[in-house]
Known about the structure:
16 helices; elongated; 2 domains
Amino acid sequence: xxxxxxxxxxxxxxxxxxxxxxxxxxxxxxxxxxxxxxxxxxxxxxxxxxxxxxxxxxxxxxxxxxxxxxxxxxxxxxxxxxxxxxxxxxxxxxxxxxxxxxxxxxxxxxxxxxxxxxxxxxxxxxxxxxxxxxxxxxxxxxxxxxxxxxxxxxxxxxxxxxxxxxxxxxxxxxxxxxxxxxxxxxxxxxxxxxxxxxxxxxxxxxxxxxxxxxxxxxxxxxxxxxxxxxxxxxxxxxxxxxxxxxxxxxxxxxxxxxxxxxxxxxxxxxxxxxxxxxxxxxxxxxxxxxxxxxxxxxxxxxxxxxxxxxxxxxxxxxxxxxxxxxxxxxxxxxxxxxxxxxxxxxxxxxxxxxxxxxxxxxxxxxxxxxxxxxxxxxxxxxxxx
Length: 385
């Protein structure tokens, strides 16, 4: 039996944030019914090349796997009635439609609770609905800018232009919070029988994520320093060159730092007056990083990895994204699995990274075509009625 077998989620979300959240629960065995607009469907279908079907893009295969799809035009009474029928039999209704628009469609919390008193109603918002940004639209770039994330790279490399982190990191972090919120609400419902309204605001979620370390000395009142975690913003904290590539090396504890300096032939640095003076001000890591960078070109990446593994020094080679699928560890753990999608053909699928001892590994469902399950879902509702 899968972890969430018997849980039904109605997913009226688009792009990455909401679909990523519900996909994680689909991976655990929940039945997720993806409600899409007729015709084009969810925009996430077009993220990544879709060959031969442009509605089945590569990112869609990842964030919507294991779901069923029904296309509904919620401005049409007959289609709105279908969604009401789905909500009446669901455990969770998750949407990311703005508050005023969802109320006009007749699917605000009170309307849904009238259909299913114990419904878990999850609203994925851009911004908390009790603040001045409540009605603003939010996408990953917007949230990165609003949380100060775009100012971090300039503080590292001195280029004053704000820049986005090259990942849909705000969307995915908010999706993680969304999955956590659904699971917490489901536990509460199992204990009490109560449903509830849950708000998952992308701005606040990502602010909490980024400021965990970067609020730093601005945490205290009055503050004892500026926001920003110095170790993360140190420009000397970079992958270190070897004779044939680069290595990430982490001298994190005093003991591992001392061992690393010994392996590099740099024992004297830790006893030098310059190091002691820098350490007194909390600025010693720049000296350590500079010393490592000066020493590592003497050997190849493979030679250093052998030495560091034998001496318990955390290190990994710098790889290109294109090389990750051939990583020997990920291959051994079965992280990537080659499968044949009935509509797309062969593709590589990432398996859920968390393993549960009480649940057997199972085949994940495929990402659906637009309205691929519409007839079956409508027929099931009609049979219930």
